[in-house]
Amino acid sequence: MKQYIALSLITMLSSTTLCFGSSLNSLNKDQFIKAFVNKTSVSIATDNLNGNTIENTFSMFLDSEGNVIGKMSHKPTNEPQIDKGTYLIDEDGTAYITWQHWDGSKKLCFHAFNTENAYINVGCDNVFHTAFMKDAITSGNHLN
Question: FRET partner for 64 with CA separation of 20 to 30 A, picked from 3, 6, 51, 137?
Answer without folding.
Answer: 51
